[in-house]
Design brief:
The protein is of the alpha/beta class. The chain has one domain (about 1-175). Helix content is about 35%, strand content about 20%. The protein has 6 helices and 8 strands, in the order ααβααββββαβαββ. A 6-stranded mixed beta sheet has the order 1-4-5-6-7-8, with helices on both faces. A two-stranded antiparallel ribbon has the order 2-3. Helix 5 (about 115-130) links the parallel strand 5 (about 105-110) and strand 6 (about 140-145). It is globular and about 40 Å long. The relative contact order is 0.16.
Length: about 190
């Protein structure tokens, strides 16, 4: 448990070190700069940060297959083979012990403030898969950055999703303001 707290703290500090000009750039630029800032820290022993690392043979528990939110935002012919129940999408960043399936810490998705509701839901579904599937990441974090008003997370289905998946949080970071964290017990 101590390792995940250290990793969360590093992630928060790295987000706060990103220069304001990255908050108006695209998702890839912001994510690469976040990766760069994270790499400046000394991570706990054996923990690595990886970018868009594919994880093979990740299976989804049957009860998740019946989740209507996941069904709507996660499954389609391009991303999953329902017979195999294998997954083809990968999060933007992963904190983990690379070769140790029992030490998966945080799966991270990044989106700009101008993203739409559907893309946010797709990323939340992906994080749920990484947390509740065979990989068992301890936490999923969706980072929304930028200065546009972020009212996409006030939609009822996202509130309900966060209640069902308390291991997933939405971190909102405007360029010149403090980081705000939304989770199952802190909803707008």
């Amino acid at each position: 448990m101590k390792s995940i707290i250290k990793v969360e703290k590093i992630l928060m500090e790295a987000i706060n070190k990103i220069k304001p000009n990255y908050f108006i750039r695209g998702e890839r630029d912001f994510t690469y700069e976040l990766y760069h800032e994270i790499r400046k820290f000394n991570l706990p022993e054996k923990i690595e940060i990886s970018a868009e690392t594919s994880k093979t043979n990740n299976r989804l528990p049957f009860k998740m297959v019946k989740d209507l939110f996941l069904y709507k935002y996660f499954y389609d012919k391009e991303n999953i083979d329902l017979n195999e129940k294998t997954y083809r999408r990968v999060p933007d960043l992963l904190f983990h012990e690379y070769d140790n399936k029992n030490q998966q810490y945080i799966a991270i998705e990044v989106k700009g403030a101008n993203t739409n509701h559907t893309k946010i839901c797709i990323d939340l579904a992906k994080l749920a898969f990484y947390c509740r599937g065979d990989l068992r990441y301890q936490k999923g974090v969706l980072i929304l950055y930028g200065d546009k008003r972020l009212n996409n997370i006030e939609v009822p289905n996202i509130r309900e999703f966060l209640k069902r998946y308390p291991e997933i949080e939405i971190w909102v970071k405007p360029s010149q303001k403090d980081l705000v964290i939304y989770c199952s017990n802190n909803l707008p």
